[in-house]
């Protein structure tokens, strides 16, 4: 168990090799942790408002973070030094992710836009519009050819990375869509909505093929395992739950946090679940 002193933790992500974790906390700092020793390696300080997302580059050398201070920042993992500040969004940045090729970043914002950034120049090379409320999350497909975006407007958009056009809009939700993720094969979308349900949508038919229900309070995140057979979710009901993606049945409930479970991630080998909470801890669950 990792303890983040006196601050709640909002999010957690593994590095590609599974050896380190980056967390974001309520004191506007990103922390880098060694998984084996459970010790903090670096603290990344520079944002001046709430940090909403952070993740490693595929080579594990850089972290991208984004904040309500309207910026996206790049950090050197080894030194903890800030490398670049990307500016252009007019409101808080809710989500940022590296492209699989490592050359670009996609971001989503409360300004209702999605932006593509060149890492070398730090410049905004394209702004995509279409959502009419806050963009809550953005993510690249596994092959890097499309981007999925979720929004408080109750839709998920699928965008072509070459034309920058929205090629599909999933209007399947009557509630805010909080998170979005592609399945490992890129054929399905997994989303969390504010009605406490996880939905799995087939991109070809554009239909919801499975709903996962069981959390009693607000859903804060869901991640699919690399094997494509299990989804882990976290909620303000203080639990992590595991679900079978074929039957939709709950497999197990993981209890241990004493506060809202605010974020979750799966190690690249699928052997460990990391969860974080308002109770100021990160917990690792071996699966």
UniProtKB/TrEMBL annotation:
Keywords: Repeat, WD repeat. PROSITE patterns: RICIN_B_LECTIN, WD_REPEATS_1, WD_REPEATS_2, WD_REPEATS_REGION. WD repeats lie at residues 2-43, 44-85, 86-127, 128-169, 170-211, 212-253, 254-287. Pfam families: WD40 (PF00400). SUPFAM superfamilies: WD40 repeat-like. GO terms for cellular component: nucleus; transferase complex. PANTHER family: WD REPEAT DOMAIN 5B, WD40 REPEAT PROTEIN. This is WD-40 repeat-containing protein. It comes from Reticulomyxa filosa. The lineage of its organism: Eukaryota, Sar, Rhizaria, Retaria, Foraminifera.
